[in-house]
Amino acid sequence: MNWLKAFNPSDIAGGMKLTGKRFRQVLFTANRRKVPMHFVAEYPEVKVKLAPRYRGRLTMIKDEQGEIKCVCCLACEKICPTQVITIIKGKKEGRKMPFPTRYDFEMERCIFCEFCVESCGFDSIILNHQFELATYNREDFSLGMEGSENMFENSAVGKFSVAE
Ligand code: SF4
Ligand code: SF4
């Protein structure tokens, strides 16, 4: 019978060994010393530690002088599979390179593929570590360069969820 083949004695023994180890830890270590054994994060009280390469919300980067790094090459806009980035190229006094007068991002259709970041040759954008991106209003998903919901800071909707 096929289902019998799924019962590999060495797998079962391995599983039981791990279960026994955890049981002993809790019974003899945690309970006696009153040390809490936590295998999960107590979110949202405790901030979750994310993997360094976690893909959160698209964010624009400024340089040390506070200047927007984006030079409007439009690579991110063109490569985005869901077409959620719209850039308007402009000029800024005292700046040789083109300057984005608008950088609009419709987050509700972003699939966090990171193609935009990979295509940027100027390290002007990242996917940050913000993961709590739910909101009650669709308008909150429309980000630009100005206003409270902007491309430089974390979205207000997820202020409690930014990992360190
Ligand atoms: S992560 Fe992907 S879907 Fe989101 S903006 Fe970048 S390219 Fe577009
Ligand atoms: S790829 Fe980088 S430099 Fe080019 S438009 Fe996008 S953010 Fe700006």
Task: Describe the structure concisely for a colleague.
This protein is of the alpha+beta class and about 160 residues long. It is built from four helices and five strands. About 25% of the residues lie in helices and about 15% in strands.
What key phrases describe this protein's structure?
single chain; 164 residues; alpha+beta; Alpha-Beta Plaits; 2 domains; three-stranded antiparallel sheet; two-stranded antiparallel sheet; binds iron/sulfur cluster
Instruction: Identify the strand order in the major beta sheet.
Output: 2-3-5
DSSP strand content: 5-15%
E-strand count: 5
Could you say how many structural domains there are in total? Answer: 2
Query: Structural class, from secondary structure content?
Result: alpha+beta
Radius of gyration from the CA trace? 24 Å
Uncertain runs: 158-164
SSE pattern: HHEHEEHEE
Overall helicity: 10-25%
What's the N-to-C terminus distance? 51 Å
Backbone shape: elongated
User: How many strands, what sense, and barrel or not for the largest sheet?
Assistant: 3 strands, antiparallel
- In CATH, the architecture of the largest domain is 2-Layer Sandwich
CATH fold label of the largest domain: Alpha-Beta Plaits
What's the mean pLDDT score?
85
Name the CATH class of the largest domain: Alpha Beta
Helix segment tally: 4
